[in-house]
Automatic annotation (TrEMBL):
The gene is faah2b. Residues 1-17 form the signal peptide. Belongs to the amidase family. Residues 63-505 form the Amidase domain. This is Fatty acid amide hydrolase 2b. It comes from the Eukaryota.
Amino acid sequence: ASLTCAHLLRALLGAFSLLFQLFSPRRPAMSGKKLPAVSNPLLLLSATQLAKKIRRKEVSSVEVVQAYIDRIQEVNPLVNAVVKDRFDAALQEAAQVDKLIEEETGGEEVLEDRLPLLGVPLSVKESYCLQGMPNTTGVVSRRGIVATVDAPPLVQLKRAGAIPLGVTNTPELCMWWETHNHLYGITNNPYDLERMVGGSSGGEGSILGAAGSVIGVGSDIGGSIRMPCFFNGVFGHKTTPGVITCENQYPPASGRDKEYLSLGPMCRYSEDLLPMLKIMAEPNTHMLSLNTKVDLKKLRFFTVPDDGGSPSTYPVSRELVEIQSKVVERLEADLGVKVQEVRFPELHYGFRIWDTYLGLSDDEGKPPKPFAQLMGEPGRPAWPLWELLKWMVGKSDHTIPAIVMGLHDMLRVFKPSPYIIKQKEKLQRDVEELLGTDGVFLYPSHPRVAPKHHHTLFRPTDFAYTAIINTLGLPATQCPLGLGKEGLPLGVQVVAGKLQDHLTLEVALYLEKTFGGWRDPGAN
Ligand SMILES: *[C@@H]1O[C@H](CO)[C@@H](O)[C@H](O)[C@H]1NC(C)=O
């Protein structure tokens, strides 16, 4: 094969990762340190159950919010996931909630209907604007910029009674899958502090996995919800694109981003996915069939074991192959369904398809915003080659993936390959035909469990496993499946046809029941 963008990107990152080992300053050692086990039972209830208990005055919102504040204060020095909190404001809001419940005369049903998440704490990805919280997405030159309004899904979640406790870390400009930037530093995996949390909703994944949060909000253009949920052992749903509005995120969507970018809920307990999605999708909830009862026995199930050995990804690890087979076995035994194995040869080009489509111009012919421009804002565009030189002597404000992204943009002068476009179109047709409105397939969320910090640089395009689903515009739920031999979370993504989000959410409920869902990283 000729030299492609993927190969170039990979070679560049490979070389830089080597340099990185030489030049990176030593981090404070996390080796030997471990998260404490959860001691407060309130932290082990879903948001749905917490809201019910709060409504019934079995527990106060202040108690619940305080329990989460205590847990964040206990774990955040270890994981560095929450980058700015609003604990005082949250406690005041919780006190108001308790007062409101005291005064409500309409009974529990009225509250449930109007304010389904009343009094429940929420965490939010920093790139998602939350009024009064930083609006930086990890860019040093944006230090001090504060969000003036809430992103629309946050407006809805607050209106439903949820109480945000703070915002969580992302990679610089959300354009990488390790959560690290020079404004807030690096975020650690609660199951092994020397490992990465994934990205870009990495702070969310980490704080949820660490039991410092029960529900959170993420966004996903190449796996940014599903990867951190996979690496940190929690549930995450990438909604069908176009349902949840993506205004008031930073950086704003440009080019064709909106076709591939999806927002969605991230949570520790699968029963919270559906109510959260209903709220976040307002006023477009009617586009989805979220009130339709799903009978799993009537679905058609498929399993796609891997991408057919693409040169841009690592082979799926043995324990992940095995757990996906286990899911197939259980589905067949429990539901009496037949799970058919299918392979799509075009998945081989997963990364190149995603990269090609993200680089295309929008319907009006406007190309995506150059990355170097985003890196420099609110000042002048950054100059990636110069930043690279500065980085080598430890003087750049930018992370190496961001600098390489800036350089990678320069390669976009090449015209998209007609061969790749044809592969994508065929894949789209075949997948849609297979799934229809009653089919789901299992696909690895990632080829292996959480790598050590910075090791993404050695395998920069492994995220093709999640990214291809964005290009296809399909909904997908990442589901945790217990811990592997190194004590790290396993998982799988469940994918359905466009707008069939209710199917994957139902499968998530089943998988949690069958495989036990989230595990306390501090246990054992
Ligand atoms: C966040 O910052 C960007 C660019 O600096 C700005 O355009 C946007 O309005 C800000 N968002 C909010 C909600 O303040």
